[in-house]
Amino acid sequence: MRFMIIVPGSPETEDGVTGTEQQFADMQAYNEEMFKAGVFVDGQGLHPTSKGVRLTYDGGEWTVTDGPFAGTEKLIAGFTVIDVSSREEAIEWLRRWPASCAPAPGQALELRQVLAAEDFGDEYTPELRAREETMRAEAARTAAGG
């Protein structure tokens, strides 16, 4: 099962503050621990919303709104994806999150399970699943430089 750990935004991340040397070292050690355990899939920080856009669909039209966006409590500063055997294992990994990188008081890391093909039901036909698997395999080859 894959889970995404969602890191909340803050006024600092919205100002473009990415972290201290100690925070980078702590997060690198945590990611390496997950990698060695075979559960690390990906993890990335995100640029502030001042460099982002939102697209809203209404009445057949898309509207593009440039950032920055208000309400940092609803923003995402980064994410980590892990592949573990259970929700409990995911929570245990989350409990190991480096204290130096913990969200500010009043904020929380969020853990969400990633939907898998079997979660979609009969509407996600075997043909659609096969197309998805082919596309993902090709994307992985492209990302690997092959």
Topology:
Elements lengths: L1 E7 L2 H4 L6 H17 L2 E6 L7 E6 L2 E6 L9 E8 L3 H9 L14 E4 L12 H18 L3
Antiparallel strand pairs: 1-5, 1-6, 2-5, 3-4
Family: Belongs to the YciI family.
InterPro entries: Dimeric_a/b-barrel, YCII
Protein name: YciI family protein
Q: Please indicate the count of domains.
A: 2
**Amino- and carboxy-terminal Cα gap:** 27 Å
CATH homologous superfamily name of the largest domain?
Dimeric alpha+beta barrel
What ranges have pLDDT less than 50 throughout 5 or more consecutive residues?
Answer: none
Structural class by SSE content:
alpha+beta
Shape: globular
Helix segment count?
A: 4
Rg on CA atoms, Å:
18 Å
Percent of sequence in beta strands: 25-35%
- Main sheet: which strands, in order across? 2-5-1-6
CATH class of the largest domain: Alpha Beta
* SSE pattern, N- to C-terminal: EHHEEEEHEH
CATH topology of the largest domain: Alpha-Beta Plaits
What helical percentage do the residues reach? 25-40%
Q: Report the count of strand segments.
A: 6
The overall pLDDT, averaged over residues, is: 94
Q: Profile the largest sheet.
A: 4 strands, antiparallel
Named at the architecture level, the CATH assignment of the largest domain is: 2-Layer Sandwich
InterPro entries: Dimeric_a/b-barrel, YCII
Organism: Terrabacter aeriphilus
Family: Belongs to the YciI family.
Protein name: YciI family protein
